[in-house]
Amino acid sequence: MKIFPLLLCLLAVLLQGCITKIVTVPAKVAYKTTKVAVKGTAAVVGAVVPDGDDTEQDKD
Prior knowledge:
- The chain is an all-alpha fold.
- It has helices at about 5-15, 15-50.
- The N and C termini lie far apart (about 90 Å).
- The mean pLDDT is about 80.
């Protein structure tokens, strides 16, 4: 019965890399998907809303 805590600690250390992958891979996928969606939305808004500096010049 005294070996159970030692075995549990050893398994936790050995599986740490797997647990890290399980957590970080979905987070990276969500980040990249959101990043692409935001860039696409910004491009559409930039195309629809003119900023007015194309041909207009200040006339005094």
